[in-house]
Specification:
- By secondary structure, this protein is α+β, with helices and mostly antiparallel strands.
- The protein is built from 10 helices and 12 strands.
- Strands 1, 2, 3, 4, 5, 6, 7 and 8 form an 8-stranded mixed beta sheet that branches. A 4-stranded antiparallel beta sheet has the order 10-11-9-12.
- Strand 10 and strand 11 form a beta hairpin.
- Helix 6 packs antiparallel against helix 7.
- The longest helix has 19 residues.
- It is globular.
- The chain starts with a strand and ends with a helix.
- The mean pLDDT is 93.
- It comes from Chryseobacterium gambrini.
- InterPro entries: GHMP_GYDIA-like (IPR047765), Ribosomal_Su5_D2-typ_SF (IPR020568), Ribsml_uS5_D2-typ_fold_subgr (IPR014721).
- Keywords: Ribonucleoprotein, Ribosomal protein.
- This is 30S ribosomal protein S6.
Length: 300
């Protein structure tokens, strides 16, 4: 029996524009996904897959990987995705699903699936480490996306990430002196992030606009004062709003908030970042948003 862990992530800058090569700053979360594996040398060529959400069984499947057939499952659509992903693992790996062994594979997502912290990217990273394959390529053929979340999960660190013209990233120590003033609020709004991405892709981007977000990211990394950081966050949010022609999350939900509110990742129902002010908990609770984390509670 072996075990692997990958942290979740929060994308602080360059949402959407990451796909066109803008520099991304992303940080790991304390919660992530555990993966355990066991091989049984029985010549049966079976995979017993169990996926847990916060230690409660969510998905189970039995897969025949000689014929790539689902023999049993409780959620057919999700089992089909697992089958497709594991088939990709087999095609890329020199060591996995080659010897007719039976595999008992178990995952446990430590955060609620609707948090948007990277349930899929942590899965891809864990599978790739286990099978000794490239997590970025496994993610590309199984899911798509810019891959920044794979870099965070793989390095277990804050990263500066760029996907165009080729994937490159570096670990960074993003530990701002004002971090204890930052908070993260979960919006809990159901959104189709693919729809937002498709809309973004349909719009014409200039290299100048992409570079603007890279510059903001570099400046954010250098911030030593909350005031400068807040101003950059407001600028970043407004530029995305102007480009997408949709209101900022602050204009939509928090028009009277006295500080910045910044969307994280695809605009929609996941987390936003803000900073503390007098009565901030009562303010967000009063708006109906009850899940609030301070930096030390959520950022690894």
């Amino acid at each position: 029996m072996g075990e692997i862990f990958s942290p979740g992530k929060l994308m602080l800058t360059s949402e959407y524009f990451a796909m066109d090569g803008a520099l991304v700053l992303a940080v790991p979360t304390k919660l992530g996904q555990e993966f355990s594996f066991e091989e049984i040398h029985d010549e049966k060529s079976l995979i017993f897959w169990e996926a847990y959400h916060q230690n409660k069984l969510w998905l189970k499947a039995v897969i025949d990987y000689q014929n790539w057939q689902i023999l049993e499952t409780n959620i057919p659509a999700s089992a089909e995705f697992i089958l497709k992903t594991l088939k990709n693992v087999q095609s890329l790996s020199a060591i996995t699903f080659k010897n007719n062994f039976t595999y008992h594979l178990k995952t446990n997502l430590q955060f609620p699936a609707d948090y948007g912290l990277g349930s899929s990217s942590t899965l891809m990273t864990n599978l790739a480490e286990w099978a000794e394959i490239d997590p970025f390529y496994l993610n590309k053929i199984s899911l798509g996306g810019s891959g920044y979340d794979i870099a965070v999960a793989k390095e277990k660190s804050a990263v500066l990430y760029q996907s165009v013209p080729e994937i490159k990233y570096e670990k960074v120590n993003f530990n701002p002196p004002f971090k204890n003033e930052l908070i993260f609020i979960h919006l809990n709004q159901k959104q189709d992030s693919r729809e937002g991405i498709s809309f973004y892709k349909s719009k014409t981007k200039s290299q100048k606009r992409v570079d603007e977000f890279s510059d903001i990211t570099r400046n954010i990394l250098l911030c030593s004062e909350l005031g400068n950081f807040s101003e950059l966050m407001l600028i970043h949010e407004q530029k995305i709003s102007d480009f997408l022609e949709i209101p900022t999350v602050k204009a939509k939900f928090f028009p009277d908030c006295p500080v910045f509110v910044k969307s994280l990742g695809a605009w929609g129902g996941d987390f936003v970042m803000s900073s503390k002010f007098d009565g901030f908990k009562d303010y967000f609770w009063g708006k109906g948003f009850h899940t609030i984390f301070e930096w030390p509670e959520i950022i690894a």
